[in-house]
Write a structure and sequence with these properties.
This protein has about 110 residues and is an all-alpha fold. The chain contains 1 helix and no strands.
Length: about 110
Amino acid sequence: MPSEEARARLAALEAEAEQMDAVLDNVEERLLGNQAMLQTWQELGRRHQEVTQLHCQTSDAHMLARLKHYEKMEERVRQSRRRSSVAAVDTVLTSGKVPKRPRGAN
């Protein structure tokens, strides 16, 4: 039969072992949490890279379409100015008389 001192020492060692288990469980939980957080950030980084690549691919085509549309609108404005300029010159060349429209005609 173990002595009183040996039993006390065994009880102290078992209590210390339980404390160490609790500390190790806490460390393991934190490590697993950090690992999950790291995986989340890596996934977000990967998705961000994909979105950035997709944006670059589509923005070029979009910008070219906008430039083409802008040039088309500028051409329309130029043509409109030419027409109004020609109409003004035409009115002056006809002795200042503007042809009258028959009533009811648009």
